Amino acid sequence: MIEAIIFDLDGVICSTDQYHYKAWKELADELDIPFDEKDNEKLRGVSRMESLDIILEKSSKKYLNDEKQAFAEKKNIIYQQYLNQMTVEDLPKEVMDTLQKLRNNGLKLAIGSSSKNTLLILKQIGLENFFDAISDGTMITYSKPHPEVFMKAADLLNVNYKHCLVVEDAVAGCIAAKSASMKVAAIASAYGNNVADFHLNCFKDLLIILNTIK
Ligand code: B16
Ligand code: MG
Known about the structure:
With 214 residues, this protein is α/β, with parallel strands linked by helices. It folds into two domains: 4-14 and 88-212, HAD superfamily/HAD-like (Rossmann fold, 3-Layer(aba) Sandwich); 17-83, Putative phosphatase, domain 2 (DNA polymerase, domain 1). Helix content is 44%, strand content 12%. It has nine helices and six strands. It has helices at 17-30, 37-41, 48-56, 65-83, 93-104, 118-124, 148-157, 171-179, 205-213, and strands at residues 4-7, 108-112, 133-135, 164-168, 183-187, 198-200. It has a six-stranded parallel beta sheet with strand order 3-2-1-4-5-6, sandwiched between helices. Helix 8 links the parallel strand 4 and strand 5 (183-187). Helix 1 (17-30) packs across helix 4 and helix 3 (48-56) crosses helix 4 (65-83). The chain is globular. The structure holds 1,6-di-O-phosphono-beta-D-glucopyranose and magnesium ion. The site of magnesium ion (MG) has 8 residues, from loops.
């Protein structure tokens, strides 16, 4: 029996993934490091510093920690410029309608995101007061595929991990959910992977799979 749904944010609730790509691309170009959309797929659900390390793997230079911090900060400034332009229009109607229906069905709803920009993004799309719990990159030590961010969300909701369903667009996030003994529904880039319990063609399909679990 599912009592709570924990949503990944970037790539699930809204499409901030495109802004991550643009901001990392700008930095990579400046550093003369090859980086394309295929490389970007490896960064889904991965923390900011780990993402930078993955990008720098293709660099011939070795950078000091201070330099890496400065690069990450620079990328985040570019990324936040995109986030600041987001509005409630960037929350798809299908997502909002489905969230509302899930809430009306008595489910607890939480966010489980690796992003340290979670509160800013939720504010931009008008969801800052919607969720019953928010677990994000500012609250965790280990990023996905470690399950910490989802365990924290379930703990905040006071729901047993076995009664949680995670919705994820990253394979790293699907692995994280499974290692916390949660059920996981994959969507978008994670669709079809062999870790998830369910695969969503679109967000509202959540309503269908929930009926099959009950
Ligand atoms: P930030 P999610 C993740 O969000 C993104 O998928 C990942 O690409 C990003 O590096 C990470 O957040 C950290 O984001 O730089 O904003 O702290 O998918 O877990 O909601
Ligand atoms: Mg994601």
